[in-house]
Amino acid sequence: MSKTQKIETRLREAFEPRELSVIDDSESHRGHAGFQEGGESHFHVVIRSERFAGQSRIARHRAVHSALGADLVASIHALSLDLAP
Questions:
Q1: Is the pLDDT of residue 29 over 60?
Q2: pTM of the full structure
Q3: Which domain, by its residues, includes 21?
Q4: Are the CB atoms for 57 and 81 separated by under 8 Å?
Q5: Could you give the angle at the alpha carbon of 29 between the alpha carbons of 62 and 74, nearest 5°?
Q6: What tens digit of pLDDT does each residue of 32-58 get?
Q7: DSSP for residue 5
Q8: How many domains does the chain have?
Q9: E runs forming strands in the chain
């Protein structure tokens, strides 16, 4: 299973989002630190989930990192998050 698929699966299970977009943005970082040939080093994630209601921005980010797990987070160079209820 690719990192993109793992990210999507773990986030769907944790947040039951009404909107989820996992974009591999690695190619736009070619030549920069952390770039890996073949991609899956830089991601942009958009989640809309009622589970974020009442949470601060930091709490939402922590929840996503927790849902992804330390193993997956450690294998990603950059993770941009757009999170809202």
A1: no
A2: 0.87
A3: 3-29+41-84
A4: no
A5: 35
A6: 666 566 678 889 999 999 999 999 999
A7: H
A8: 1
A9: 19-24, 42-48, 78-84
Which strands sit side by side in the sheet containing 78-84, from one edge to the other? 19-24, 42-48, 78-84
Asked if residue 36 is part of any domain, the answer here is no
Long-range contacts of 71-77 (CB under 8 A, 24+ apart): 72/3, 72/6, 72/7, 72/10, 75/3, 76/3, 76/40, 76/41, 76/42, 76/43, 77/29, 77/33, 77/34, 77/35, 77/36, 77/41, 77/42
In whole angstroms, give the CA distance from residue 64 to residue 70: 11
pLDDT tens, 3-25? Answer: 999 999 999 999 999 999 999 98
Residue 51 within any structural domain of the chain: yes
Residue 48 forms part of a structural domain = yes
| Residue 74 belongs to domain with CATH number | 3.30.300.90
